[in-house]
Design goal:
about 160 residues; mainly beta; six-stranded antiparallel beta sheet; 2 helices; about 45% strand; globular
């Protein structure tokens, strides 16, 4: 092979490796215990002490069974940089009743949606809290709640 073809192979390998990198700094799911998710059951996600200051994006994840009785899910998300909670509205099913997200043959589904951004600077609290704010006191068929946190790629754009 010539030197030029080695150069192109090297560039292609670097591009492939760069495309596999991720900005994800935290990813965790917690199981919902008991017979359903009670409105009083808040899920606590404790961030790593080594998390750098900066702007982060979130993805909220929900795992549920086909028995979940609603099309959507309303959540309250408390972030470290805000005094008030953000409200997140997730559509677990479309207008026709088909589940969004990925499912399995055994009737379990996982759905992820973009959550709010947060600015992690000079913050004393490093806990994210999620609870449901649906009418029913207990939500059946929700099996896990998760969050994925990623370093914002373009923080100046995200602030706008």
């Amino acid at each position: 092979m010539s030197v030029i073809s080695h150069k192109y192979i090297f560039i292609a390998i670097c591009a492939i490796l760069a495309s596999c990198s991720t900005n994800t700094v935290y990813h965790r799911y917690y199981p919902i215990e008991g017979n359903g998710w009670k409105r009083t059951d808040t899920i606590f996600f404790t961030l790593n002490d080594s998390l750098d200051t900066g702007i982060y994006s979130t993805k909220i994840g929900v795992r549920h069974t086909v028995s979940y009785p609603y099309r959507d899910l309303w959540l309250s998300v408390s972030l470290p940089d805000k005094e008030k909670s953000d409200t997140v509205h997730l559509y677990l099913a479309n207008e026709r009743g088909n589940w969004n997200g990925n499912g399995t043959a055994s009737g379990y589904y996982q759905y992820e949606s973009d959550g709010p951004l947060f600015d992690y600077r000079e913050i004393s609290d490093s806990v994210i809290k999620i609870c449901h704010i649906m009418k029913g006191f207990i939500l059946p068929s929700i099996t896990d709640i998760g969050i994925s946190i990623s370093r914002s790629i373009n923080p100046e754009e995200d602030k706008k």
